[in-house]
Amino acid sequence: MNNAEAASIRHDWQREEALALFDMPFNDLLFRAQSVHRRYFDPNEVQLSTLLSIKTGACPEDCKYCPQSGHYNTGLEKEKLLEVDKVIEEARAARDSGASRFCMGAAWRSPRDRDMPQVLRMIREVKSLGLETCMTLGMLTENQAAQLSKAGLDYYNHNLDTSPEYYGEIITTRTFQDRLDTLANVRSAGMKVCAGGIIGMGEGEKDRAGLLVQLANLSPQPESVPINMLVKIQGTPLENEKDVDPFDFIRTIAVARIMMPASHVRLSAGREEMNDQMQALAFLAGANSIFYCEKLLTTPNPQANNDMTLFQRLGIRPEQRAVTEDSEDQEAALLRKVGEAQTDGQFYNAAG
Ligand code: SAM
Ligand code: DTB
Ligand code: SF4
Protein backbone atom coordinates (compact mmCIF):
# COMPACT_ATOMS: atom_id res chain seq x y z
CA MET A 1 0.00 0.00 0.00
CA ASN A 2 1.49 3.38 -0.96
CA ASN A 3 1.11 6.58 1.10
CA ALA A 4 -1.84 7.92 -0.91
CA GLU A 5 -3.69 4.61 -0.52
CA ALA A 6 -3.02 4.57 3.22
CA ALA A 7 -4.12 8.19 3.59
CA SER A 8 -7.44 7.54 1.87
CA ILE A 9 -8.55 5.05 4.54
CA ARG A 10 -11.15 6.79 6.72
CA HIS A 11 -11.99 6.27 10.38
CA ASP A 12 -14.80 8.78 10.62
CA TRP A 13 -17.61 6.87 8.94
CA GLN A 14 -21.14 7.86 9.90
CA ARG A 15 -24.02 5.41 9.85
CA GLU A 16 -25.97 7.60 7.36
CA GLU A 17 -23.10 7.35 4.88
CA ALA A 18 -23.00 3.58 5.21
CA LEU A 19 -26.79 3.43 4.77
CA ALA A 20 -26.49 5.58 1.64
CA LEU A 21 -24.09 2.98 0.22
CA PHE A 22 -26.56 0.18 1.04
CA ASP A 23 -29.25 2.18 -0.77
CA MET A 24 -27.31 2.58 -4.03
CA PRO A 25 -28.59 0.77 -7.12
CA PHE A 26 -27.01 -2.71 -7.03
CA ASN A 27 -24.99 -2.25 -10.23
CA ASP A 28 -23.61 1.12 -9.12
CA LEU A 29 -22.66 -0.30 -5.73
CA LEU A 30 -20.87 -3.29 -7.26
CA PHE A 31 -19.05 -1.10 -9.76
CA ARG A 32 -17.83 1.19 -6.98
CA ALA A 33 -16.78 -1.72 -4.74
CA GLN A 34 -14.93 -3.44 -7.59
CA SER A 35 -13.18 -0.15 -8.50
CA VAL A 36 -11.99 0.28 -4.90
CA HIS A 37 -10.96 -3.38 -4.78
CA ARG A 38 -8.73 -3.00 -7.84
CA ARG A 39 -6.88 -0.06 -6.31
CA TYR A 40 -5.76 -2.16 -3.34
CA PHE A 41 -5.73 -5.80 -4.47
CA ASP A 42 -5.20 -8.13 -7.39
CA PRO A 43 -8.88 -8.77 -8.27
CA ASN A 44 -8.15 -12.38 -9.26
CA GLU A 45 -6.57 -13.51 -6.00
CA VAL A 46 -8.37 -14.96 -3.01
CA GLN A 47 -6.71 -15.86 0.29
CA LEU A 48 -7.35 -19.34 1.78
CA SER A 49 -7.68 -19.95 5.52
CA THR A 50 -8.31 -23.38 7.01
CA LEU A 51 -10.27 -23.59 10.23
CA LEU A 52 -10.03 -26.18 13.02
CA SER A 53 -12.03 -26.41 16.23
CA ILE A 54 -9.47 -27.11 18.97
CA LYS A 55 -12.08 -27.23 21.77
CA THR A 56 -15.69 -27.94 20.96
CA GLY A 57 -19.01 -27.23 22.69
CA ALA A 58 -20.15 -26.64 26.29
CA CYS A 59 -19.46 -22.90 26.04
CA PRO A 60 -20.81 -20.84 28.97
CA GLU A 61 -21.83 -17.94 26.65
CA ASP A 62 -25.39 -17.65 25.32
CA CYS A 63 -24.78 -16.42 21.72
CA LYS A 64 -28.16 -17.14 20.10
CA TYR A 65 -26.64 -18.29 16.80
CA CYS A 66 -24.08 -20.72 18.13
CA PRO A 67 -24.20 -24.54 18.04
CA GLN A 68 -21.52 -24.60 20.76
CA SER A 69 -23.35 -22.68 23.46
CA GLY A 70 -24.09 -24.82 26.53
CA HIS A 71 -27.40 -22.94 26.89
CA TYR A 72 -29.05 -24.75 23.96
CA ASN A 73 -29.51 -28.37 23.07
CA THR A 74 -28.03 -28.70 19.59
CA GLY A 75 -26.95 -32.35 19.87
CA LEU A 76 -23.32 -31.37 19.36
CA GLU A 77 -20.60 -33.73 20.54
CA LYS A 78 -18.31 -31.91 22.97
CA GLU A 79 -14.54 -32.27 22.78
CA LYS A 80 -11.87 -31.11 25.19
CA LEU A 81 -8.77 -29.18 24.12
CA LEU A 82 -7.08 -31.16 21.32
CA GLU A 83 -3.60 -32.62 21.70
CA VAL A 84 -0.89 -30.57 20.00
CA ASP A 85 0.07 -33.50 17.71
CA LYS A 86 -3.47 -33.71 16.34
CA VAL A 87 -3.45 -29.98 15.59
CA ILE A 88 -0.10 -30.26 13.78
CA GLU A 89 -1.39 -33.13 11.67
CA GLU A 90 -4.39 -31.03 10.58
CA ALA A 91 -2.23 -27.97 9.95
CA ARG A 92 0.16 -29.94 7.75
CA ALA A 93 -2.77 -31.27 5.70
CA ALA A 94 -4.11 -27.70 5.34
CA ARG A 95 -0.73 -26.48 4.15
CA ASP A 96 -0.42 -29.36 1.69
CA SER A 97 -3.79 -28.57 0.17
CA GLY A 98 -2.83 -24.95 -0.38
CA ALA A 99 -4.06 -22.92 2.63
CA SER A 100 -1.87 -19.99 3.65
CA ARG A 101 -3.36 -19.48 7.13
CA PHE A 102 -4.42 -21.91 9.84
CA CYS A 103 -7.14 -20.69 12.23
CA MET A 104 -7.79 -22.46 15.52
CA GLY A 105 -11.06 -21.84 17.37
CA ALA A 106 -12.10 -22.71 20.93
CA ALA A 107 -15.57 -22.58 22.48
CA TRP A 108 -14.45 -20.55 25.46
CA ARG A 109 -15.64 -17.32 27.07
CA SER A 110 -11.92 -16.73 27.58
CA PRO A 111 -8.90 -19.04 27.89
CA ARG A 112 -7.98 -20.36 31.35
CA ASP A 113 -4.42 -19.75 32.43
CA ARG A 114 -3.80 -23.48 32.76
CA ASP A 115 -4.68 -24.01 29.06
CA MET A 116 -2.23 -21.38 27.87
CA PRO A 117 0.95 -23.55 27.68
CA GLN A 118 -0.78 -26.03 25.31
CA VAL A 119 -2.23 -23.21 23.21
CA LEU A 120 1.17 -21.52 22.95
CA ARG A 121 2.75 -24.78 21.81
CA MET A 122 0.12 -25.07 19.07
CA ILE A 123 1.05 -21.60 17.82
CA ARG A 124 4.78 -22.32 17.75
CA GLU A 125 4.37 -25.65 15.98
CA VAL A 126 1.88 -24.44 13.37
CA LYS A 127 4.05 -21.44 12.64
CA SER A 128 7.08 -23.65 12.15
CA LEU A 129 5.22 -25.35 9.26
CA GLY A 130 5.39 -22.01 7.40
CA LEU A 131 1.71 -21.20 7.88
CA GLU A 132 0.27 -17.93 9.14
CA THR A 133 -1.42 -18.51 12.49
CA CYS A 134 -4.79 -17.31 13.74
CA MET A 135 -6.74 -18.12 16.90
CA THR A 136 -10.15 -17.31 18.29
CA LEU A 137 -10.43 -18.16 21.98
CA GLY A 138 -12.87 -15.58 23.35
CA MET A 139 -12.00 -12.59 25.51
CA LEU A 140 -8.33 -11.94 26.29
CA THR A 141 -6.59 -10.00 29.02
CA GLU A 142 -3.64 -7.81 28.08
CA ASN A 143 -1.33 -10.41 29.52
CA GLN A 144 -2.87 -13.30 27.55
CA ALA A 145 -2.70 -11.28 24.34
CA ALA A 146 0.98 -10.58 24.99
CA GLN A 147 1.69 -14.29 25.51
CA LEU A 148 -0.04 -15.28 22.27
CA SER A 149 1.79 -12.60 20.34
CA LYS A 150 5.15 -13.62 21.77
CA ALA A 151 4.55 -17.25 20.74
CA GLY A 152 4.12 -16.05 17.15
CA LEU A 153 0.36 -15.64 16.70
CA ASP A 154 -0.18 -13.51 13.60
CA TYR A 155 -3.96 -12.90 13.77
CA TYR A 156 -6.61 -12.96 16.48
CA ASN A 157 -10.26 -13.37 15.44
CA HIS A 158 -12.86 -11.73 17.63
CA ASN A 159 -16.11 -10.74 15.95
CA LEU A 160 -18.32 -7.79 16.87
CA ASP A 161 -21.11 -9.85 15.25
CA THR A 162 -23.70 -7.04 14.92
CA SER A 163 -24.40 -3.38 15.74
CA PRO A 164 -23.98 -2.14 19.33
CA GLU A 165 -27.78 -1.54 19.47
CA TYR A 166 -28.71 -5.07 18.38
CA TYR A 167 -25.96 -6.86 20.34
CA GLY A 168 -28.07 -7.37 23.47
CA GLU A 169 -30.74 -9.19 21.43
CA ILE A 170 -28.18 -11.84 20.49
CA ILE A 171 -25.85 -12.20 23.48
CA THR A 172 -26.49 -11.35 27.12
CA THR A 173 -23.46 -12.92 28.83
CA ARG A 174 -21.02 -10.21 27.66
CA THR A 175 -21.22 -6.70 26.25
CA PHE A 176 -20.23 -5.03 23.02
CA GLN A 177 -17.69 -3.04 25.05
CA ASP A 178 -16.09 -6.33 26.24
CA ARG A 179 -15.50 -7.19 22.57
CA LEU A 180 -13.92 -3.80 21.87
CA ASP A 181 -11.69 -4.17 24.94
CA THR A 182 -10.33 -7.51 23.71
CA LEU A 183 -9.70 -6.07 20.25
CA ALA A 184 -7.73 -3.23 21.88
CA ASN A 185 -5.65 -5.78 23.84
CA VAL A 186 -4.96 -7.74 20.63
CA ARG A 187 -3.78 -4.58 18.88
CA SER A 188 -1.58 -3.36 21.64
CA ALA A 189 0.09 -6.78 21.82
CA GLY A 190 1.09 -6.28 18.17
CA MET A 191 -1.14 -8.88 16.50
CA LYS A 192 -3.24 -8.42 13.39
CA VAL A 193 -6.97 -8.13 13.96
CA CYS A 194 -9.61 -10.32 12.34
CA ALA A 195 -13.07 -8.96 13.22
CA GLY A 196 -16.39 -9.13 11.44
CA GLY A 197 -19.93 -10.27 11.99
CA ILE A 198 -22.97 -12.30 11.02
CA ILE A 199 -25.74 -11.37 8.59
CA GLY A 200 -29.18 -13.00 8.90
CA MET A 201 -29.90 -12.83 12.65
CA GLY A 202 -33.04 -10.70 12.19
CA GLU A 203 -31.04 -7.45 12.19
CA GLY A 204 -32.05 -4.51 10.02
CA GLU A 205 -30.01 -2.66 7.41
CA LYS A 206 -29.19 -0.03 10.02
CA ASP A 207 -27.59 -2.74 12.16
CA ARG A 208 -25.52 -4.00 9.22
CA ALA A 209 -24.45 -0.40 8.61
CA GLY A 210 -23.78 0.06 12.36
CA LEU A 211 -21.56 -3.05 12.47
CA LEU A 212 -19.51 -1.91 9.46
CA VAL A 213 -19.12 1.61 10.89
CA GLN A 214 -17.77 0.13 14.15
CA LEU A 215 -15.29 -2.05 12.26
CA ALA A 216 -14.18 0.67 9.83
CA ASN A 217 -13.69 3.25 12.57
CA LEU A 218 -11.24 1.04 14.44
CA SER A 219 -7.83 2.52 13.88
CA PRO A 220 -6.08 0.75 12.30
CA GLN A 221 -8.92 -1.07 10.56
CA PRO A 222 -8.98 -4.88 11.02
CA GLU A 223 -6.69 -6.57 8.49
CA SER A 224 -9.27 -9.31 8.06
CA VAL A 225 -13.06 -8.91 8.07
CA PRO A 226 -15.11 -12.13 8.09
CA ILE A 227 -18.69 -11.66 6.90
CA ASN A 228 -20.66 -14.74 7.95
CA MET A 229 -24.13 -15.65 6.73
CA LEU A 230 -25.98 -17.22 9.65
CA VAL A 231 -25.83 -21.02 9.60
CA LYS A 232 -29.18 -21.90 11.13
CA ILE A 233 -28.72 -24.49 13.83
CA GLN A 234 -31.55 -26.61 15.21
CA GLY A 235 -31.96 -26.07 18.93
CA THR A 236 -30.68 -22.46 18.90
CA PRO A 237 -33.08 -19.53 19.30
CA LEU A 238 -32.28 -18.46 15.69
CA GLU A 239 -33.10 -21.83 14.10
CA ASN A 240 -36.16 -20.45 12.27
CA GLU A 241 -34.74 -17.09 11.25
CA LYS A 242 -35.77 -16.01 7.76
CA ASP A 243 -33.30 -16.43 4.89
CA VAL A 244 -31.20 -13.43 3.94
CA ASP A 245 -31.91 -12.01 0.49
CA PRO A 246 -28.74 -13.01 -1.41
CA PHE A 247 -28.46 -9.52 -2.93
CA ASP A 248 -28.57 -7.95 0.54
CA PHE A 249 -25.73 -10.23 1.58
CA ILE A 250 -23.70 -9.18 -1.49
CA ARG A 251 -24.45 -5.54 -0.71
CA THR A 252 -22.97 -6.03 2.78
CA ILE A 253 -19.75 -7.39 1.24
CA ALA A 254 -19.60 -4.46 -1.20
CA VAL A 255 -20.13 -1.85 1.54
CA ALA A 256 -17.46 -3.55 3.70
CA ARG A 257 -15.05 -3.43 0.75
CA ILE A 258 -15.68 0.29 0.17
CA MET A 259 -15.36 1.24 3.84
CA MET A 260 -12.32 -0.99 4.52
CA PRO A 261 -10.49 -0.86 1.19
CA ALA A 262 -7.20 -2.43 2.30
CA SER A 263 -8.65 -5.22 4.45
CA HIS A 264 -9.18 -8.79 3.35
CA VAL A 265 -12.96 -9.30 3.39
CA ARG A 266 -13.72 -12.97 4.00
CA LEU A 267 -16.76 -14.70 2.53
CA SER A 268 -17.11 -16.84 5.66
CA ALA A 269 -19.79 -19.14 7.09
CA GLY A 270 -22.81 -19.90 4.93
CA ARG A 271 -21.12 -20.89 1.65
CA GLU A 272 -22.83 -24.30 1.75
CA GLU A 273 -26.10 -22.46 1.09
CA MET A 274 -24.66 -20.29 -1.71
CA ASN A 275 -24.54 -21.35 -5.34
CA ASP A 276 -21.50 -20.65 -7.53
CA GLN A 277 -23.13 -17.54 -9.02
CA MET A 278 -23.65 -16.02 -5.59
CA GLN A 279 -20.05 -16.71 -4.58
CA ALA A 280 -18.84 -15.20 -7.86
CA LEU A 281 -20.89 -12.06 -7.11
CA ALA A 282 -19.34 -11.92 -3.63
CA PHE A 283 -15.85 -11.95 -5.21
CA LEU A 284 -16.96 -9.24 -7.65
CA ALA A 285 -18.20 -7.20 -4.68
CA GLY A 286 -14.72 -7.40 -3.16
CA ALA A 287 -14.57 -10.55 -1.03
CA ASN A 288 -11.01 -11.88 -1.28
CA SER A 289 -10.71 -14.58 1.32
CA ILE A 290 -12.57 -17.80 2.18
CA PHE A 291 -12.50 -20.60 4.72
CA TYR A 292 -10.99 -23.48 2.77
CA CYS A 293 -11.86 -26.64 4.69
CA GLU A 294 -14.59 -29.23 4.59
CA LYS A 295 -15.76 -28.28 8.06
CA LEU A 296 -15.94 -24.82 9.64
CA LEU A 297 -15.85 -25.27 13.41
CA THR A 298 -18.75 -27.71 13.69
CA THR A 299 -20.77 -27.31 10.46
CA PRO A 300 -20.04 -28.33 6.85
CA ASN A 301 -18.31 -26.11 4.29
CA PRO A 302 -17.77 -26.76 0.54
CA GLN A 303 -15.25 -29.47 -0.46
CA ALA A 304 -11.76 -28.24 -1.38
CA ASN A 305 -12.13 -29.73 -4.88
CA ASN A 306 -15.31 -27.75 -5.48
CA ASP A 307 -13.59 -24.54 -4.40
CA MET A 308 -10.67 -25.23 -6.74
CA THR A 309 -13.08 -25.96 -9.58
CA LEU A 310 -14.92 -22.69 -8.97
CA PHE A 311 -11.62 -20.79 -8.85
CA GLN A 312 -10.58 -22.40 -12.14
CA ARG A 313 -13.86 -21.44 -13.81
CA LEU A 314 -13.50 -17.85 -12.58
CA GLY A 315 -9.76 -17.54 -13.26
CA ILE A 316 -9.11 -16.93 -9.57
CA ARG A 317 -5.77 -17.88 -8.02
CA PRO A 318 -5.20 -18.68 -4.34
CA GLU A 319 -3.17 -15.91 -2.72
CA GLN A 320 0.28 -17.20 -1.84
CA ARG A 321 1.54 -16.64 1.66
CA ALA A 322 4.68 -14.52 2.14
CA VAL A 323 7.56 -16.32 0.42
CA THR A 324 9.10 -19.08 2.51
CA GLU A 325 11.25 -22.04 1.60
CA ASP A 326 8.05 -24.06 1.36
CA SER A 327 6.21 -21.90 -1.12
CA GLU A 328 7.25 -24.00 -4.09
CA ASP A 329 5.77 -27.03 -2.36
CA GLN A 330 2.57 -25.09 -1.85
CA GLU A 331 2.30 -24.21 -5.52
CA ALA A 332 2.94 -27.84 -6.47
CA ALA A 333 0.23 -28.93 -4.02
CA LEU A 334 -2.27 -26.51 -5.53
CA LEU A 335 -1.52 -27.65 -9.05
CA ARG A 336 -1.99 -31.21 -7.89
CA LYS A 337 -5.40 -30.32 -6.38
CA VAL A 338 -6.53 -28.65 -9.59
CA GLY A 339 -5.29 -31.71 -11.51
CA GLU A 340 -7.32 -34.02 -9.26
CA ALA A 341 -10.44 -31.93 -9.79
CA GLN A 342 -9.83 -32.16 -13.56
CA THR A 343 -9.49 -35.93 -13.56
CA ASP A 344 -12.62 -36.19 -11.43
CA GLY A 345 -14.35 -34.63 -14.45
CA GLN A 346 -15.28 -31.56 -12.46
CA PHE A 347 -14.19 -29.07 -15.09
CA TYR A 348 -16.34 -27.94 -17.95
CA ASN A 349 -14.45 -28.74 -21.12
CA ALA A 350 -14.95 -25.80 -23.44
CA ALA A 351 -13.27 -27.71 -26.28
CA GLY A 352 -16.10 -30.20 -26.21
N1 SAM B 1 -15.78 -18.48 21.46
C1 SAM B 1 -15.05 -17.54 20.73
C2 SAM B 1 -15.81 -16.27 20.46
O1 SAM B 1 -17.01 -16.29 20.43
O2 SAM B 1 -15.16 -15.25 20.24
C3 SAM B 1 -14.50 -18.09 19.43
C4 SAM B 1 -15.32 -19.05 18.58
S1 SAM B 1 -16.85 -18.41 17.93
C5 SAM B 1 -17.64 -19.89 17.37
C6 SAM B 1 -16.35 -17.53 16.48
C7 SAM B 1 -17.38 -16.84 15.65
O3 SAM B 1 -18.08 -17.78 14.85
C8 SAM B 1 -18.49 -16.09 16.33
O4 SAM B 1 -18.08 -14.84 16.79
C9 SAM B 1 -19.51 -15.95 15.23
O5 SAM B 1 -19.31 -14.75 14.52
C10 SAM B 1 -19.22 -17.16 14.33
N2 SAM B 1 -20.35 -18.10 14.35
C11 SAM B 1 -20.67 -18.96 15.33
N3 SAM B 1 -21.78 -19.67 15.04
C12 SAM B 1 -22.19 -19.23 13.82
C13 SAM B 1 -23.29 -19.56 12.99
N4 SAM B 1 -24.21 -20.46 13.36
N5 SAM B 1 -23.42 -18.93 11.80
C14 SAM B 1 -22.50 -18.01 11.43
N6 SAM B 1 -21.43 -17.66 12.18
C15 SAM B 1 -21.29 -18.25 13.37
C1 DTB C 1 -15.63 -16.43 11.73
O1 DTB C 1 -15.96 -15.24 11.55
N1 DTB C 1 -16.33 -17.46 11.28
C2 DTB C 1 -15.72 -18.72 11.69
C3 DTB C 1 -14.43 -18.25 12.40
N2 DTB C 1 -14.57 -16.82 12.41
C4 DTB C 1 -14.03 -18.79 13.68
C5 DTB C 1 -16.63 -19.60 12.46
C6 DTB C 1 -17.92 -19.93 11.74
C7 DTB C 1 -18.65 -20.91 12.57
C8 DTB C 1 -19.90 -21.43 11.90
C9 DTB C 1 -20.63 -22.40 12.74
C10 DTB C 1 -19.84 -23.62 13.09
O2 DTB C 1 -19.23 -24.29 12.19
O3 DTB C 1 -19.83 -24.02 14.27
FE1 SF4 D 1 -19.18 -19.59 22.90
FE2 SF4 D 1 -18.02 -18.30 20.90
FE3 SF4 D 1 -20.19 -19.85 20.47
FE4 SF4 D 1 -20.47 -17.56 21.75
S1 SF4 D 1 -19.80 -17.82 19.63
S2 SF4 D 1 -21.35 -19.56 22.37
S3 SF4 D 1 -18.55 -17.46 22.88
S4 SF4 D 1 -18.20 -20.54 21.13
Comma- or semicolon-separated keywords:
352 residues, alpha/beta, 10 strands, globular, binds S-adenosylmethionine
Quick gist of this model?
By secondary structure, the protein is α/β, with parallel strands linked by helices. It contains 13 helices and ten strands. Helix 9 links the parallel strand 6 (197-199) and strand 7 (224-229).
End-to-end separation in angstroms reads: 43 Å
Q: Report the C-alpha radius of gyration, rounded.
A: 19 Å
Order of helical and strand elements:
HHHEHEHEHEHHEEHEHEHEHEH
Residue stretches low in confidence (pLDDT < 50, at least 5 long) are 324-328, 345-352
Helix content: 40-55%
**Average pLDDT level:** 92
Question: Could you give the topology of this structure?
Answer:
Elements: H1 3-7, H2 15-22, H3 26-40, E1 45-55, H4 84-96, E2 101-106, H5 116-128, E3 132-136, H6 142-151, E4 155-157, H7 164-170, H8 176-188, E5 192-194, E6 197-199, H9 205-216, E7 224-229, H10 246-259, E8 264-267, H11 276-284, E9 289-291, H12 304-314, E10 317-318, H13 327-343
Parallel strand pairs: 1-2, 1-9, 1-10, 2-3, 3-4, 4-5, 6-7, 7-8, 8-9
The protein binds S-adenosylmethionine, 6-(5-methyl-2-OXO-imidazolidin-4-yl)-hexanoic acid and iron/sulfur cluster (SF4).
S-adenosylmethionine binds next to loops.
